[in-house]
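Q: Can I see a sequence and its folded structure?
A: Here is a first one.
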Amino acid sequence: MQAYVAIGSNYEFKLSEAVLVYRSGSQAAFASPHRVKQVDEGVPYLAPGEPLTTAFVRTLAQGLGAHVKPEIFSENILARTPDLLVWWSRPQQRVMFFGGTDQEARRINGLAFPHPALIFKVLGKDLSVRAMATTSRPEAATALKTAPYWNTDSRGLVCAGSMRAPESSDVASIPAWEAAYFQSEFTHAAGAVRLTSHPDRFVGLWTTLAGRKRFPIQYLTDAGETLQEFVARGSER
């Protein structure tokens, strides 16, 4: 495995501290920070360990980028960590763009369609989308539906394709993430996923919805997970 660190500016880094982690089996563990010392041009060595303090952990986390600036949460925010942002949007009209080789889909390219309530999750740089059959703010136990869109797989993970994802994933970037998703072209089914129960399948569904006012939620398929499971999946990495 190769790992890369993007600093963004020119800095000179010197080894100054090390953290040693001690484990007993798979359960108990503790850590101790050690200062790195060096005599003249000799090999660096570790000084005796010190008690691990909250201030040290906080400083280390901020240095690694695990810092969330204070933000005012609106009603649509469902979950937030340094790496994760989850929100929901109410049913609304959105324009969709269709690419690829399907000529029937190309005929409805650039038209406005009604959409169900949606849940978006940004984890790192990955965007995932689920749908809801309800129109109110979801709870942890709310059962989710499959997002009825090409380029989105059975897990809700979006194949970026032509999507230009925002650089940030803070609360202020939410409109940019939604715009990036719907302003990109939907081109193909991403894996073995049943996007809709409509008798004429995906293209038939959206062909009948062009210019309509409301999305028919009876054509949504079950995603097989709750909001709690959707939020937690992958966030432990």
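Q: Show me another, different protein.
A: A second, unrelated one:
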Amino acid sequence: MVAIAEACASGKFPAQIALVLSDVPEAGILQNAQRFAVPFAHIAPGKYRTKLDEDAERAYIQRLSEARVDLIVLAGFMRILKGEFLRAFTDRVVNIHPSLLPAFPGLEAWKQALDHGVKVTGCTVHFVDQGIDSGPIIAQQTVPVLEGDTPETLHARIQEAERQLYPAAIGALAEGRITVKGRQTLWRPAGAG
């Protein structure tokens, strides 16, 4: 969120953060929103551990609709979004995942990469669909797996890559430079007609 807020504040792309919502009341993202003078709120997720319950989902939809958001950018939101939420914001929800999807979807992808012995991993910005980390891929950035890497050191390097890739992808979306055709996306360079 900080990298995205800094990119917005710098004028690197025509976007602003309209609202920050969190399902965790003490989440650092809420303090960061306050620091950047962005409206923020906590909305309890409800009775389920891995997804929003129906009341929470309606509350999220209402708050985001009232804020008139064009794009929903997930950052550390560890709940599966489905159904009514995705219908309310069709093709307007993006996420970043700490692997080169479709490899290693789900939780702790950096540990999965180490366990599988891959030499390269990375991060992926993708549209959110009804599956888990299965939406059309917008952008990817590679991160080498180094000899002696631990889950913590690899995850830290992936997070560095995420802080570069996510704002760049959001900027391209805000500028209308991303086109989706089925599962394929086309990212036109800045300044291209």
